[in-house]
Amino acid sequence: MSSIGFSPLRPSRPPFEEKGSANLFMKKITAFTDGACLGNPGPGGWACLLRYNNKTKEMWGSAPETTNNRMELTAAIKALEALREPCEVELTTDSNYLKDGITSWIHNWKRNGWRTARKKPVLNQDLWQQLDEQVTRHKMTWKWTRGHASHAENNRCDELATTAARRQSSGGKVVPS
């Protein structure tokens, strides 16, 4: 699923637009993401929910042998890849690994040739690089919420990601929780 099911209308831009003022016309998207894994590693699932005005799009997928952190990263990547143009995105996640990694740790990783402070290779470098590429397309705000709490959209993403992981582990059949 490489695109979301809606294409926000492009507002007209004045012919006298000043350089650097494009952010005034960016669409505002709210995104929620989650990843799940049955075992770690094991069959995994990811999910995202995108909202623009009064339209909502849910997407999800799975991987046969993965980790929870890889699914968290994949959910964010898929959410951002689905946007067909640069947007102002507020992304909510229950993963400190994802939020801290993309807002703080990644700067040093890149500066250190994708090595940690302990000089070890960054885990999931492939996905961090994909996410970094997507993040540079958008004006991002990252928010954290407690997982499995009273956050409706996070709970929905958790449900979709867990269902995707269960389907992966059962060969595509729906497996009750």
Question: How would you characterize the overall build of this protein?
Answer:
With 177 residues, this protein is of the alpha/beta class. The protein has a single domain (26-169), classed as Ribonuclease H-like superfamily/Ribonuclease H (Nucleotidyltransferase, domain 5), CATH 3.30.420.10. The chain has helices spanning 68-81, 96-111, 125-135, 152-169, and strands spanning 27-37, 42-52, 55-66, 87-93, 139-144. The chain has a 5-stranded mixed β-sheet.
Count of all domains = 1
* Cα-to-Cα separation, first versus last residue: 25 Å
Strand order of the largest sheet: 3-2-1-4-5
Gross CATH architecture: 2-Layer Sandwich
Brief rundown of the structure:
By secondary structure, the protein is α/β, with parallel strands linked by helices. The chain has four helices and five strands.
What is the element layout, followed by pairings?
Blueprint: E1 27-37, E2 42-52, E3 55-66, H1 68-81, E4 87-93, H2 96-111, H3 125-135, E5 139-144, H4 152-169
Parallel strand pairs: 1-4, 4-5
Antiparallel strand pairs: 1-2, 2-3
Helix pairs in contact: 1-3
Protein traits:
five-stranded mixed beta sheet; disordered N terminus; Nucleotidyltransferase, domain 5; globular; 177 residues; alpha/beta
